[in-house]
Queue: 3 jobs
Job 1
Amino acid sequence: MSGNTKSSSKRPAGRSSKSPKQKSMGLHSSEILALNKKAERYAQTVSAIRSEVEKVIVGQKDAVTKVLLALLSDGHVLLEGVPGLAKTLLVRALSSTIQAEFVRIQFTPDLLPADIIGTKIYEHKTSSFKTVKGPVFSNFVLADEINRAPPKVQSALLEAMQEKQVTIQGETHKLKQPFMVLATQNPIESEGTYALPEAQVDRFMFKVLLDYPSKEEEAEILERYTKLSQPEAGKITNASKIVEMQNFVRSIYADEKILEYVSTIIDATRNPEEYGLKINGFIEYGASPRASIWAIIGAKANALLNGRGYVLPEDVKSVIHEVLRHRIILSYEAEAEGITTDEIIDQIMSKIRVP
């Protein structure tokens, strides 16, 4: 940096004469350039995957982007939307592009944990027990209407989601890589459902909201899906390449100011009064440390998506709603006034200074 204090004093408070890109490039330019080149190559692959998925999915561009970011981040996604918004189709199309295994599990009140992870059965011919693995041993697991299953079944996914392994009667089995759980919830029904506990909800990287298509998108859906032949997603890459990209995402550079920016946002959900936010009575519990971790990793994945080897504040902004949406627990007062977590996040983001 220049030692010219006179010129520095003329700058607006909190502003730097260099753009975020210039500052990142100036820290260790050779490493950043190498990361950029690698990110650009990977971004081309991800762009091709997106194009194939969009041949099948009409609209829902933001949902497609967020699911791709979660996949690159090695995270899980909670999808919320009314039935018929192509949640299953989205996951199936994505799995097709990377030639991965996909399974859909319909969660019902009579489901048992063994139906998810598997069990052991006794074989009379060999006089021994044989392990029968459940559907969780796939790359993509769509847990459809997860809140319809009892808590014991919901918790059967916990070890799988967090540890990428399951234990069947004392034996531990590693899951396939990549492994991603996409769970759906129907927001318009509450009868016969079991609300997901905060501990389990916190294990989802993102909560993604799906909305109705526009009138034009509806017409395009009719055009594509009322014919004899229907669109299919082509094969772009393979599972091992996705794992390679997941590992690369962790190596993308995030400056200390970016880390501080994220930690400040998360702290504001816990101590809003310290940041001049008049939302004290609306937040029962702030976000957990997992929110900070996923915000940074998600921002890194967004940087890769844009062919960059370093993180900008815009990358954080692009994922922060999906990261915090299910981690901020609102009070009864907020719910009574119809205040949403997205509105709370908007207020927080408007107050926190961007580096």
Note: Confidence is low (pLDDT under 50) at residues 1-26.
Job 2
Amino acid sequence: MNEFVNFIKRKSSLFFLFLGLAILVALLYYMDFSVIAESFSMVGNKIFLVFAVAALWIVCNTLCVSTLVNHKVPFYHLLYNQVTGDGYNVITPFAGLGGEPYKIKHLTNWLSLDEASETIMRDRLIHSLSGIIYTCSTLWVVIFFVPVEKALYIGFIVFGLVLTVFSILLSLIILSDKPNKYLGKIMKKMKLLKEFKSNPLKRSIFLKALFFKLLGRVLNMLEFVVIFILLGIQPELLEIVTIAAMLALSGTFLFIIPQGIGVNEAGISGAFQLIGKPIELGLGVGLIRRARVLFWALFGIAIHLSVLFYRNILLKKQREKN
């Protein structure tokens, strides 16, 4: 029985990955592919401008981790940790968490194992909290300023209220000692540590780290502005916020789908329908965004493999000298 349960746990992430792929395939099948192809054709080589914008929130996420470690680790090492670790998060189907053990291991070059684990755990929790706050904030903007159908309007209000309450509860949990106690139990059970040393999270550090995460999410909207401009569309603030809200909403409630594949594209397509634009164009924008995700994932992994290759060469040279 235990073996069966463990098998289900191992395969569940793959199931949700294939579910997301199925949603994406269905979207492509039922939409006019010529519109999608045209959007890629219009962007062309300028798609690298879309890729470049991501550097803004990567830096913000790195500043969040730097705040959590009280700047004990050089910033460029944290930036390397962020880019390479997130690369593994994208390609591993384990609910987007496959790169977290790698991040912890890398941070142990400067921090103890319990400090590194605690930092990555807090970063992940604050990342989740920032996502909920961001979703809630953009959703309330849509509720108050975007004309939508009554049924959708009521649904948005319910979601907005639920997310508001949940964000408050999650904030209280992060500031409490419960996450640290849970992490300590896991590490002791895995026999990684005999004694887990927990450091309380100061409210000032928490707020500063949360600020950087939220700033990164706000800057994420610039990606849609750039894509709109490349597609020859005049970007309007309310339209961009609506797309961001639908994307965040889909990602929040279907977080179990690895990297929101299929789900995010569906959310963006739905947002385009809300703002009165072709849903095929929305899917095109979603796929351009997906290309950016894959680019940075491959870029991060390539950097990590290059560093490993370079270190192996240095080790061989040292051995030859000895």
Note: The chain has one domain: 2-321.
Job 3
Amino acid sequence: MQTAEDIKILNEKIEYASVFIDRLRNELSKVVVGQLHMIDSLLVGLLCNGHVLLEGVPGLAKTLTIKSLAQAVHAKFSRIQFTPDLLPADVVGTMIYNQSRNEFMVRKGPIFANFILADEINRAPAKVQSALLEAMQEKQVTIGDSTYFLDEPFLVLATQNPLEQEGTYPLPEAQVDRFMLKVIIGYPGKKEEQLIIRQQVQNETIPQINAVASINEIMQGRELVKQVYMDEKIEQYILDIVFATRYPDQYNLGKLKALINYGASPRGSINLALAAKAYAFMQKRGFVIPDDVKAVCKDVMRHRIGLTYEAEAENVTAEKIIDDILKTVLVP
């Protein structure tokens, strides 16, 4: 149990250690107009060592934001454009024969980087998706007889286009569950889009992204995120939200029973707690409040709730179900 004095000391530590978050936000704002929620979600993933799936129509700066984040952190970046003819070896690497040495050698694939942009992940067949997702889960890759550990931080930031279904291989639920966050990217506002037009049309030089944060700062930030205080009442609040997706009738949400095919897994509870701590850290706080849980709830939970055919027929979305749960579950 942490005392008020412990939390005060932790607040001071976080105030000092979280400065790199402000630097990253400012640096990304040079090239990315608006989309603050997307930037914050990527930073939550970075602080929690969790992978992020971005979904949105083309042209919303998903790729640009991920690439800019990698440049701002001074880390190794790889972009893999997923296509129907991609092979697992194109992602993880393969054995090649060296004639001069008369032996097989390992040629490592683009997975060996700190930031992996898996562009349009749903364009590749299941074998390629599973090769990537195995690396995400195990943080290691096996090529031939040898196993290679991936460098830290290792973050997969995947994008998918929700519009076109032709020629795509939707990620199975068990694989989508490996992503800590699924973030839906919306259109920018009118003023933001006006600024985007000016930047692109007036032949201004595109600002250069500088490395403003080190890997060491990120690793220290991760350690402090784990130390952020979470009261037992907040833990109970998180459990109530997750259990309401599994047993809605126990929370006076009987109307949702016919709409939910399956609820969130324990991975949902873990990630909701971690993301809430990271969000508190980004607000320069050493303790979690219910608003932190609410702020990250949709991104953590939306891909962990299975909808029934009835829900799809009535155009009920996972977001609508989460809204109903947050309105009903008692806030500590």
Note: Residues 266-282 form the longest helix (17 residues).
